[in-house]
Write a structure and sequence with these properties.
This protein has 103 residues and is mostly helical. The protein has one domain. Helix content is 72%, strand content 0%. The termini are far apart. The mean pLDDT is 81.
Amino acid sequence: MGKSLWERIEAIREEPEHIRLRYVFGCLTFSMIFIIGIWMLSLEESFRNIKGTLPETIKTGKDLFPKEETPSLSDLLQKATPLHPDESKPLEGKDYFDAQMQK
């Protein structure tokens, strides 16, 4: 039958350095092919998930753009419209500070 794993490792250790390097590069190549194969499989699955959620993502993205009724900052500055939600007179100085601390 074949040699055990430890016997095979000992046989490789006794080989010249250029032969041991062949084993190293062979194992490295095999490992990288294995890792890249797993990565390619997971990448394919990732693209499949993205493709499935694409219509929903596009719809969500369209909702992020400003609507036509949303005023721009330049329009607000030209109209001098106050940005206070309660349309009250803006507080200044210590009154503003006290109002913010109470919140």
